[in-house]
Amino acid sequence: MAEQAAAVELVHDVGEDPQALDILADLAATTGFVHTRNRLHAPGPGILAGPLTTALVPHPLTERATTADLLRLLAITCPVP
């Protein structure tokens, strides 16, 4: 029952974001939903930051292109906790 409740809470925690849910499902497959949810809310580096960044921004933002500048600006104004 705890696993089912943790799975439902994970869906709410990430606002039903499909990419985040995909990452969390992969983690939960090996560690369980309760452990995955505890890691999501634990202090320290986020468990979604690396995989989501890689999925959404596959190339480094070191270039001087306008799109890279826009992504850098958005990262400053809307930081991920």
Task: Provide key terms for this protein.
single chain, 81 residues, mainly alpha, elongated
Q: In percent, how much strand structure appears in the residues?
A: under 5%
The proportion of residues forming helix, as a percent range, comes to 55-70%
Compute the number of strand runs. 0
The largest sheet is: none
Mean pLDDT: 78
User: Which parts are unreliable, with pLDDT below 50 for 5 consecutive residues or more?
Assistant: none
If you had to describe this structure to a student in words, what would you say it looks like?
It is a single chain. With 81 residues, this protein is mostly helical. It contains 5 helices and no strands. The chain has helices at residues 2-13, 18-31, 33-41, 49-56, 66-77. The longest helix is centred in the N-terminal third of the chain and has 14 residues, at 18-31. The protein is elongated, with a radius of gyration of 15 Å. It starts with a helix and ends with a helix. The mean pLDDT is 78.
